[in-house]
Specification:
Elements: E1 4-14, E2 22-31, E3 34-40, H1 46-54, E4 65-69, E5 73-77, E6 79-81, H2 102-113, H3 118-134, E7 137-144, H4 153-163, E8 166-173, H5 192-206, E9 215-221, H6 229-241, H7 243-246, E10 249-254, H8 258-268, H9 272-278, E11 286-290, H10 296-305, E12 308-311, H11 313-318, H12 326-332, E13 336-338, H13 351-363, H14 373-388, E14 404-408, H15 422-428, E15 436-439, E16 442-446, E17 449-450, H16 455-473
Parallel strand pairs: 1-4, 1-5, 6-7, 7-8, 8-9, 9-10, 10-11, 11-12, 12-13
Antiparallel strand pairs: 1-2, 2-3, 5-14, 14-15, 15-16, 16-17
Helix pairs in contact: 3-4, 3-16, 5-6, 13-14, 14-15
């Protein structure tokens, strides 16, 4: 019998269902990995109310029941992160890279990242996912494209399984090193035939296309300019060769800087959106990170082809790349999700903060109605689900995955705001850590703390790895 969990008495329950219902004194019932009922606590069906009352009693038939009191909390679907580089938690705020633009930033950091080991990849994945989980993120992708010293995507899947966050692991790649005009050292590039062979291997080994899947594989060359055109096309062809039932998605960086747009015009005689189309990189199975400098025709193209975008507001500001035209994208019908981006270009991994930044960054252009708090939360949930190609996460409704988060409205930060509009307070007020989080029906965070992770020990291991990585890069 699946475990039954009843969550009730929520001050506000934000469903993100098609009617965008917000239920005062809300409740929901979970059976195993899915939601089976949502509504007001007063309307909780007797079968779930009885189970909630029986929770914790000694009868073995009742021990599969639990009741979670969400009084004083706002409850939402788990947030979804659509772009990250987990390994960069190891190189946060390095002095030499704090004030550099993107290309200089990469040149500083690539020689350090070339020393990554499988153990580094494992611990940084765990740290990044724990940080995300504590911000309310229950599903995340990661764009990993450097595989030195025997590291493999397998290391990330093993780490993600231990943390328990729903994970879309990207088999990324770079094949053009310094000797071929690229940015990374030649020693971290890979042979393109070997890349494609390993892409097939990880798909066949790890990809789970079923509903409520906890792990999926994404094919993700680093950017259209860090691999050959052939590899871009072959990666798309390989992903699509598995057919719609497997639904392998594609991801890369695009239009992050002005220099990238200028290079594309000079080298290929077209703009970035058109270049992506020429490579076969548009469609509802593709999403691109950033798209800061996507022009009007590119936006129309992405809308027509259902190509998705991962918006990374903090990173775009941190590296002085500009402001992505999210309002224009949304108005045109482009699917937009949020990404925290790499922890060395953001130095944080808080999805609620990204929702807040997305609202503020659209308004800074001069229109106070350019984005609302509720739209920012929609992008963080339903937007992310659409970008990742999933219809089983991003909303609280029967038949959806049991990914549920709650924030404590009694936090001092919300005082004076939550009494007026708790939904807007979540975005307008300073971002808070999550109070509780269920992922796939498992309670992973309670009272603001992970139940299954020794966080101080994880931080200690991670910091030792970060210092050792820098010493190796410096020849120590």
């Amino acid at each position: 019998m699946p475990t039954t969990t009843v969550i009730s008495n929520a001050t506000a329950l934000i469903t993100m269902n098609p009617r965008r219902q917000e239920i005062a004194d809300g409740a929901l019932a979970l059976e195993g990995s899915q939601i089976v009922w949502v509504g007001a606590s007063a309307d909780l069906p007797a079968r779930y109310a009885d189970r909630a009352r029986a929770a914790g009693q000694s009868d073995p038939a009742r021990q599969s029941c639990s009741h979670f009191d969400a009084r004083g909390k706002i409850v939402l679907p788990g947030f979804i992160n659509t772009h990250h580089h987990f390994y960069q938690t190891l190189t946060r705020v390095l002095p030499a890279a704090q004030n550099a633009v993107l290309f200089d930033w990469l040149k500083i950091l690539y020689p350090i990242w070339a020393e990554l080991t499988p153990a580094d990849l494992h611990v940084s994945t765990q740290l990044a996912l724990t940080e995300l989980l504590l911000s309310g993120c229950t599903s995340s992708s990661d764009h990993h494209y450097l595989w030195p010293n025997g590291s493999r995507l397998d290391d990330q899947f093993a780490a993600a399984e231990e943390i328990g966050v729903r994970f879309h692991g990207a088999r990324g790649s770079v094949s053009l090193g310094e000797s071929q005009g690229g940015l990374p050292p030649d020693r971290v590039t890979e042979d393109e035939a070997a890349i494609l062979e390993d892409c097939r291997r990880v798909i066949e080994t790890y990809h789970d296309a079923r509903r409520f899947a906890m792990r999926r594989v994404v094919l993700a060359p680093g950017s259209p300019f860090s691999v050959s055109q052939d590899l871009m096309r072959e990666s798309a062809a390989l992903a699509r060769s598995f057919g719609p039932k497997m639904d392998i998605h594609l991801h890369t960086h695009l239009a992050e800087t002005v220099d990238e747009e200028d290079f594309c015009l000079a080298r290929f005689g077209c703009r970035l959106g058109n270049y992506a189309e020429l490579l076969g990189w548009t469609g509802d199975d593709v999403w691109h990170a950033h798209c800061v400098h996507l022009n009007e025709s590119g936006i129309r193209l992405f809308a027509q082809t259902r190509t998705g975008v991962a918006h990374c507001p903090t990173s775009n500001m941190r590296l002085a790349n500009g402001i992505a035209p999210v309002r224009a994208m949304r108005d045109a019908g482009v699917n937009v999700g949020l990404g925290v981006d790499g922890s060395a270009s953001n130095d944080g991994g808080h999805l609620l903060e990204e929702a807040r930044q997305s609202l503020l960054l659209q308004r800074v252009l001069g229109d106070p109605q350019a984005m609302t708090a509720r739209e920012a939360l929609e992008i963080a949930t339903l937007g992310g689900a659409a970008v990742l190609g999933r219809d089983d996460i991003g909303a609280l409704a029967p038949g959806m995955a049991a990914d549920v988060i709650g924030f404590d409205l009694s936090a001092p930060t919300f005082a004076g705001g939550a009494v007026h509009d708790p939904v807007a307070a979540l975005v307008f007020c300073s971002p808070q850590p999550v109070d509780f989080a269920f992922v796939n029906g498992r309670l992973l965070v309670e009272d603001g703390m992970p139940r299954h992770i020794d966080t101080p020990r994880l931080v200690e291991r991670h910091n030792r790895a970060a210092l050792a990585l820098l010493r190796r890069a410096e020849g120590g």
